[in-house]
Amino acid sequence: MDESLLEKREGVVDNENEYTTWVEYWLEGELVHRSAHVALKKMPPIVAEAASLT
Amino acid sequence: MANTQAMCTSFLGEVFTATHNFGVAPTRGSSAADTFKAALYLASATLNASTTVYSATGEVSGTGYTAGGVTVTNATVPASSNTSTTAGTAYWTPSASITYTTVTLTTAFDTVFIYNSTQSNKAVSVHTFGSQTITAGTFTLTMPANTTAAALLRIATT
To answer: How far is Cα B126 from Cα B112, in angstroms, rounded to an integer?
Structure first.
């Protein structure tokens, strides 16, 4: 394949839940490759509590 | 229909009965850590805090993806740390990224479901992200830092 014919598209999503990057390669209007990398950010912890006996 | 990020309530109870073993526990029949898996779910699925066990319903399908997902690398035992005399946090994070290599998943997915395949596929947690599709490529989930403030799973007292 002549790689010069490939069109590369990239994107980023950054919010409180994730940091995501993706890359696509298009050949003559057809998507031939798409990869994504999602970095998960923290989620709320479980809150544990001991009940008072009084 | 939508997925909701949540720590599964069934898991909360199972923590207290040692159903799940992320590390080594001498009180159990086996001292080996359980095997945890990560499965991807379509954006149209309905996983949430009520999810109790792995199901193929709503799971992604496509070239290179095996139903049930991939095994989570678990080389780091759970840890805990006190933040005061009355509060602390127990935490655990997979020790490597979760990667689905050379897959084609053309229907949008937005959720990874962590479950315990050693203990009858019982649910652990649901994690959502922006909808994705993959075409002859790799999908990678990088884990947060394994700290009291950011670990993937945290149980905290305040």
So the answer is: 6
Are the C-beta atoms of residues B120 and B10 closer than 8 Å to each other? no
* Segments forming the whole domain that contains residue A29: 3-40
CB atoms within 10 A of CB B28: 12
Total-model pTM: 0.87
Nearest CA in chain A to B4: A43
**In a structure prediction context, what are the per-residue pLDDT tens digits for chain B, which is 158 residues long?**
688 776 566 666 567 557 777 776 545 666 678 899 999 999 999 999 999 999 999 999 999 999 999 999 988 888 888 877 777 888 889 999 999 999 999 999 999 999 999 888 999 999 999 999 999 999 999 999 998 888 898 888 77
Q: What is the ipTM of this complex?
A: 0.84
Q: Is residue A28 part of a domain?
A: yes
Which residue among A38, A42, A47 sits closest to B150, beta carbon to beta carbon? A42
How many domains does chain A fold into? 1
B150: exposed, middle or buried (Cβ count in 10 Å: 0-12, 13-18, 19+): middle
B124 touches chain A (CB under 8 A): no
**Measured between beta carbons, which residues in chain B are less than 8 angstroms from residue A40?**
127, 129, 141-144, 152
Q: Could you state, in order of their start, the residue ranges of all structural domains in chain B?
A: 6-147+151-156
